[in-house]
Amino acid sequence: MLGVMLGLRAAAVRGDFRRVAFWLGALVVYPTLMLLLGGFLSYGAAAAIVVLSALAISTRHYWRVVVSLGLISFLGLSLFVNYMRHRTDIRKEVWGGAPLAARIDSTVDMFRNFEWIDLSNKQHQRVIDDRLNQNYFAGMAALRIQQGLVDYLWGRSVWEGVLSLVPRALWPEKPVYGGSPKIVAEMTGLVLSATTSFGVGNVMEFQINFGFPGVIGGFFLLGWIIGTLDLKASVAERRGDLGRLLLYFPPCVALIQPGGSIVELTGGSAAALAAAYGWKWAWKVWSHKRAPLRGSSSGRFSNASIQRVSAGAPGGDRLARIPLPREH
To answer: Using CA atoms, how far apart are residues 55 and 38, in angstroms rounded to an integer?
Structure first.
């Protein structure tokens, strides 16, 4: 995601449409693999949204952003309603271990009778409401707490998030899992399938732990953490310090799970941080072998490469703030 984001932005600022097409092609690789290998569209779509959002806020042409967001939203919702119509068939092939050709064929079926989003279409309305509206779970849990049928968790799921930091390799019997079916079933009283996930979501989990103050405090804390990591990643990118950028960007992205649980937020961000240290080490070794930058191997980009690109390229004043690899 980080590599595609930097490459796509540099190509867009230069006006190099061939490079833009190349990086857009790279952007759809992960969503495609997630669909063919896992049967999920949401994870890949979230990755694409993060990349395109970062690109959108870096432009100075606001009307282009407005038009682009409108177009992307229209295409995204159209893709969503068609995916939901074929999701059962796609997952039947993927989860059943079907050959890759059969998985591709079931996915292509999604585009054979493609329907554009129509908000007056009752079927499209129902699909969007059933899948994206989590008010039902949250409202039912709040009502049951009000009626005294269940009590607040008082931080129990927060503690489970702390336990999720322990690798399962060190604690194989760890009783903490992602997916949230247990906590959603407990708080709503619904009988849910154990074979799939039911995202509790940030709103509901903050509420069932500490009530309305939990929602306010939880989002304040989560927003502060994400904002801090995002700011530090931006500063590192502006300075050309890719090694430090790698430490902030992956954990920040891992915390953006509005439909996930605290277990997934903490465990995912910890795993992302561990992976980030690995990537930072790899970048440091690679950059040291290529050529020590600024007399060290700190993993910084070369000022000379930035100046080479910015001198004569369209939008050069903005390119001067975009760090590029030394051997561009």
So the answer is: 27
